[in-house]
Amino acid sequence: MAGRTEIVWPTPNTAFFDGKPIEAFIQPTASGIVESGLYGGVRNGGTRFHEGIDLFPLKRDRQGEPVDPVFAVMPGVVRHVSTLPGNSSYGRYIVIEHPGETPAVYTLYAHLRAIEPGLAAGTEVARGQRIATMGRSSSVIAIPKARAHLHFEIGVWLARDFQRWYDAQKFGSPNMHGIWNGLNLMGLDPLDFYRCLRAGGVADFQDYFRQMKPVVRLRIASGSRMPDFVERYPSLRTTPVQAADGVGGWEIAFNETGIPFAWTPLQAHELADYKPGEARVLAVDEALAKKWRCKSLAVKTRGQWRAGDDLDTVLQLLFGPR
Ligand SMILES: [Zn+2]
């Protein structure tokens, strides 16, 4: 078993560990509302989802640009370095995967000013190693100097076959980031994870995923082929499964932002009245779903629940087009 997760803060600001309020490290949007820099449905009156946290710099050069180093928070392997700021709304960004954790989460560092020389896909990094300099790069919005920040994410990625899904969307621009495109990434709440770890409520990511609350439970008759997501994150299975051992599909629990965090294999006979590929919503936590209106996970028509747009996208990425 893996030991307790040891994780550092991605910037030199010690405010979180000193127990200071979020104003001491969170960079708000132009709204000035500090919560807008947190994770969740924190923007546009609660309707827009922010998949990470925004952290402001402590030091700047004479031009007012940030000089704070950015650190890898855990040991890991660099998977993606995007050096051209115009290629992503993340600007210059780095993704690191952490095979020492269960599940092997990724961390993402965005809007960087500069990336440490020599850092490339495949580079192994140590916990606390400097990987970049904080900045304000982005392809879509000009982030003003005053709001330079690190966008920091922790999460899991959905599909090896991401490119097939991407091509089918007809976005009109090529995917420059392979599987490390933001659309293939699902972030959890980094600040909540740090808080739970500090409070001792969880010891590692496995604990953290186990205490996620199901907002939607769904069954899908996906056939015997196992989605690579469950292959890569076997700890998210609730019961061990032998490959192709009569598995006809899955019962999956999704948290409030649609992360498929608990997978139970179903025998083909348990899905006898399902059409191939059919998905049925079994249960919805309506109070939580309402609270997280930045995500459309389930919608009710004529008294029947079905997957909402955001959940449907997750299902398409996990199982292929339906
Ligand atoms: Zn952000």
Automatic annotation (TrEMBL):
CDD domains: M23_peptidase
Stored Pfam families: Peptidase_M23
M23ase beta-sheet core domain segment(s): 49-154
Domain of life: Bacteria
Gene Ontology molecular-function annotations: metalloendopeptidase activity
InterPro entries in alphabetical order: Cell_wall_metabolism_enzyme, Dup_hybrid_motif, M23ase_b-sheet_dom
Name of the protein: Peptidase M23
Species: Termitidicoccus mucosus
